[in-house]
Amino acid sequence: MTGLAVDDAAWAGRWRRRAVGDKAVLSVGLVLAALLLPAWPGTVLVAVGALATAVLGARVPARLMARTLRAPLVFLAIGAITVAVSVSREHGLTVTADSSRRALELFGHGIAGTLALLLLATTTPMVDLLTALRRWRVPDALIEVASLMYRLLFVLLTTVATIREAQANRLGYDGWRTSFRSTGALTAATLVRSWHRARALEEGLAGRGYESAMVTLAPPLRHSPRFVAASLALVALVVVASVLVAGVSS
């Protein structure tokens, strides 16, 4: 079965057995700091802190972090460009100092917040996160929808990998015209097969008496007051350093 690289890293990671709440304190604290602190130097400090904690503390592969960050980078870059560039009938496309500053601030907040969320995603398997949400009294309906979408991701990835391998073995990607035609066929076949497999999954759950929630046993996770204290200290250090540097700069 094809897996998700982020989820695989979380399962094999150094922080796998840490309590979800402990890691959430660190990640959510950094996210709030990224949103509330000024772009300079707050977002830079949050980004460096989150990246260093993930790579050096949790031992998440740096290559995985880089790969995972590529799509958000493109999305944030497009958003920043739309903020920086103004369109008018009189002047056409214009870029001002104020719009450039706001674009850079938006980009910085986005990168810092994304890295803070990736810190939680690359260290916490989705199964543990869903179990923690149920323990935190999140409605079962929301958890089951998230769980179902998570399962369907693997169905989708497996279907795409199987069909694409069969097409490649038949030289379905030899030339751009053939590749374009094969990609269209791959998309259509994936949608149809995923729909049938999703229906089979639903029928299988119904046959096992599934009605509203599927509660499973959760593995014991280790709560560490020292880890929580260190997380709060890191967030506080980022906030204090940002305020001091911003004060000196002004």
TrEMBL record:
Membrane topology designation: Multi-pass membrane protein
Q: Which UniProt keywords apply?
A: Cell membrane, Membrane, Transmembrane, Transmembrane helix
Checking InterPro entries in the record gives:
ABC/ECF_trnsptr_transmembrane, Cobalt_transport_CbiQ, ECF_CbiQ
Top-level division of the source organism's lineage: Bacteria
Predominant location of this chain? membrane
Can you tell me where the transmembrane regions are? 24-57, 69-87, 107-130, 142-163, 227-248
Coiled-coil segments = none
Q: Where in the cell is the protein located?
A: Cell membrane
Q: What is the protein's given name?
A: Cobalt ECF transporter T component CbiQ
